[in-house]
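Posting this for the archive.
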Amino acid sequence: MTSNNMESNLHRIAINDLVLSFVKIELIQEITPVKGYVDMIVSEKFGAINDKQKEKLHIVQKQVDRLLSLVSEINVAKLDEIIHDNSLQINDN
């Protein structure tokens, strides 16, 4: 591998890391208020809710928690692996 290729790869990795970090922060910033409001509604901070509403909101809570967990597991190495695998598949066709 030449010096230029190594520099190019390092630059690409740095850009991927930066973009991924930005995406993670943006997603977390958007999801967090949803989680907070759903939690407050379920705990009846804004008033009473019926059992059906509580049941549906518990589903929303689980999905929001799952989404936050998925976002926190995003990592650059995995993204790079996915991009690399996809480019190989595209080139093979």
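Residues 3-92 form one domain. The longest helix spans residues 3-42.
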